[in-house]
Amino acid sequence: MRRNATELEKMRRAGRVVAEIHEETRKAIRPGVTTGDLDRVAREVLERRGAGSNFLGYHGFPAVICTSPNSMIVHGIPSDEVVLVEGDIISVDCGAIIEGYHGDAAYTAGVGEISAEARRLLEVTERSLQAGIEQLRDGNRLHEVGRAVQAVAEAAGFTVVREYVGHAIGTAMHEDPQVPNYWPGSPGPTLKTGMVFAIEPMVNAGGPETVQLDDGWSVVTADGELSAHFEHTIVVTENGPEVFTVP
Ligand code: MG
Ligand code: MG
Fold first, then answer.
1. Is the pTM of this model over 0.90?
2. Is 149 helix (H, G, I), strand (E, B) or coil?
3. Which of 63, 88, 134, 245 is most buried, with most CB under 10 Å away?
4. Distance of CA 113 from the midpoint of ligand 2 (Å)
């Protein structure tokens, strides 16, 4: 769906709130902090900005962010029992609603000093996101995004998750079409200005296989290897991609 200028301005504002949640939660990440603490930091930002949460209550999800440490890929539930320790990596997925319009973005950060391999995973995953974003151009085909993401991740010896994907976004967080992080075998829809997508590579250090835990939410790597997740909300403009989820 193509959004008009008024809608895009609301999405820009929602994106800035999400970026502020990123900034504030990043500042809070250190050994000894719990993922429940990070959720409270995010709630304060939403409240201060008068923004709604698109995560809280989503199919019953109990928090305003997802927090997924180490081998957890996505959808981890924040908890006061989950204490971050030196050397962990933690994926934080955040969203906000302004006047009915949604923003959605994620990052993975190190807790204190992390291993060189973990640093490389974070760097490559973020770079794969940037490569995907570069494809969001008027007249291009949507699945060039996934092709670009996959090329960056696999060139580095990593794999991309298949079961969870990016999506269009607007008056709902998850709108059609989906945006795979791999080449699905067909070029997909033609991109037009005003279309907005959440691009979100999930890149695994080991194999791409996933397992969902008994809590019904947490998704982990089947082989126990690390996973990273970066996401932005982006609009296709006549001048190329514009990222909304930045300060
Ligand atoms: Mg997200
Ligand atoms: Mg998303």
1. yes
2. helix
3. 245
4. 28
